[in-house]
Amino acid sequence: MQAMMAPLTPPPKGLALASKSSPWSTIWRMLGIVILLFVIAQVMILSLFGILEGDSALTIFSLVCSVPLLLIFIFARRPKLTHVVVANPSPDGKMQHLLPDSRMLMTPVPTSFSHHLVKDSPPLEMPPTSTLWIVFSLTVITAFLGLLPAMLSNDPIWLVLAILIGIPAWLFGFSLPVHAWWAFSTRHFQIMTTKIEGEKMLIAGMLSTFPAIVINSLLFPLILISIGITSMDSGTLGEFLILTISAPVGEEICKAIFVLSLYKMIDSPKRGFQIGFSVGLGFALLENLQYIMSSFSGLAVTYSLTTVIRGIGSIPGHALWTGLSGVSIGWFLCTKRGIQTQDLFNQDSTSWVVFDGESGQIVNTERELSTMGRTVRGWLYKPIDKVWSLPRSPVTGLTLAICGHALWNGSSWIVSWLFIGTDVVVQVIASLVWIVIMISALWIIGREILAAVMHLPS
Fold this sequence. Notes:
The chain is mostly helical. The protein is built from 12 helices and 4 strands.
């Protein structure tokens, strides 16, 4: 079988081969992975508690339970490879080539074969951003109406209804806003990104929650206890320090480290921002899972408020702050590699071949922006002489990320603390008013940052 006996060789430079995939497949895949990583995180935390408490049985049991979960994660992340056979005209070649299954290939000129294993990864495609926001809005409305009867009546039937509606409401509520922002950023940045690359960015963000959880739940509380601060309950100094020091510093450093772990993918400042933005979304995805789960304690009201506020405030906040770390890391890496700014504007692009797995025909995966997409892009656009200068030093970028995160957490705590002795209704109104102010400020700052990103070299 002459055609199939040639040794494997590296694929031609710039070749990307991909079979067609569904835009929704990435969402379902990421949903499964984040739930798996959440379970792994809980098991790992148990093992750490076992170490701290000297409970060897708990530690061993947790580690044993984590092994099959880690194997499932590794299996889910395995790359899909495609065997590519290329026939090249060659005077030393042959015109008849035996193939497997008693087949023969005849070529009009003498040819020789080369064999390559290519990662099958289509360009990252997401459903339209507007579709994701519409489904998210319908989820919140349906969940509110479905959970409301359980708040007003003790009839078991309403509790059953709340459970039946609550499970899909939880799944869609914590994941759809993250994917909506991811879909928006994928189109806004206008950088060709493979599905494998996009998933790596989001999963890196999920993994960055592991050390952040250890810092916030174990290390920093132990530091507080060592200096005499023993209470970390709501409204205490301990809680304030965790929100304004531990969470911003620990989480942003962890996210920046995982951005840096993808250094091979960072070929420009804009790519650095994209990776930072996506890592922030991955972090928010796993964090949001926990917040939305706990919000069901108050049924309709707390679920709806928590889901909406996090969807339009906390999630883009995580992405924007880590994006600042990412763009500064991008500038730093390009400078260290000796890449000049003019070179960044003239990089060669990858040649893409996307085919339908059933018909074998080449397909076009490019989609035009919708009317809403063009409107949003126009609103975000600013001339290059009117945009902000984004940080080029990783220290500056990380410092800005920490400050933005700390301001969001700390100011919300201070407002709650100032009204802690007032009526509950006053406390709720004060908190909601301040949240509206913070989200409005975030969106204004976010517009300036995203407008500047469009002028970054890529």
